[in-house]
Amino acid sequence: RSFARSLLRFLGFIFWGTAAAQAFGGVLVILMLKNYRYLFQDSYLSLPGWLALAAALILLPTGVLAVSISVKCSRNQQGTLMYLLLLLLCLEMSSATLACSYCAKTASQLESVMGYLVHQHNWTCSQDPGNSAVDMIQRKLQCCGVHNYTDWLKTSSSSWHHPACVPESCCKEKHSHCSGHLGHVEQLSEEGCLKKLEGQLCFAMLYIFWFCTVLIILELLAGVSNGILMRHQPFHELRIL
């Protein structure tokens, strides 16, 4: 029983600390999908992030209850803690499962959308939404094309308008006078955008997956500890029944 009290107190403090890390993972996923919303048109992809944020908020009162119960047992507090732990388990398991499945699912979707945007690039209209999305991604990630800069040579209009050029967003930041001409390949970003986008997406999703998995184990330990304490405190007020 004393070990259960000590463990519950320790887990209570852990829950406080992990709430911030859990919220960070949720915000990371939400902001990343918002920044690249032109590529991720399915709004449900941000669901693991929102579930992680909800779990982070519930972790705070859960930690308070765990520390309070370890000091002074209260039947109402113990029951409330069990309900909160059950709710957290549902949120964490849902978030982890969705994050893992979305990481694998969106890889093919990314390649398809990026390939379409590059292939249909409008060289004559710089204000085209597709052009703006591609330029933003290439500048932000310092990448060029889907797999590399040669993807721009296969576009539907490159041979007519710019037979030996890529968009200026492919230029490296340190080359301020770069015009995207293929005669100066050393001034262009070498890596493709698909690999970098997949890396960012999978990092955010796997961060949530593994963090939720660890929290599930800790929450199960907290539930077992709370259950041990509840066994040693019978329902005195219900003995008449």
From TrEMBL:
Q: Which top-level group of life is the source organism from?
A: Eukaryota
- This protein's gene is called Tspan3_0
Species name: Leiothrix lutea (Red-billed leiothrix)
Species classification: Eukaryota, Metazoa, Chordata, Craniata, Vertebrata
UniProt KW Oxidoreductase keyword: no
Does the UniProt entry include the keyword Mitochondrion? no
Q: InterPro entries, per this entry?
A: Tetraspanin/Peripherin (IPR018499), Tetraspanin_EC2_sf (IPR008952)
Where exactly are the transmembrane stretches of this chain?
7-30, 50-71, 83-104, 204-229
Which Gene3D superfamilies does the entry mention?
Answer: Tetraspanin
- Pfam families membership: Tetraspanin (PF00335)
- Return the GO cellular component terms, semicolon-separated: plasma membrane
Give the membrane topology, semicolon-separated if more than one: Multi-pass membrane protein
Q: Where in the cell is it found?
A: Membrane
- Protein name, UniProt field: TSN3 protein
Question: Quick one: where is this thing mainly located?
Answer: membrane
Keywords (alphabetical) are: Membrane, Transmembrane, Transmembrane helix
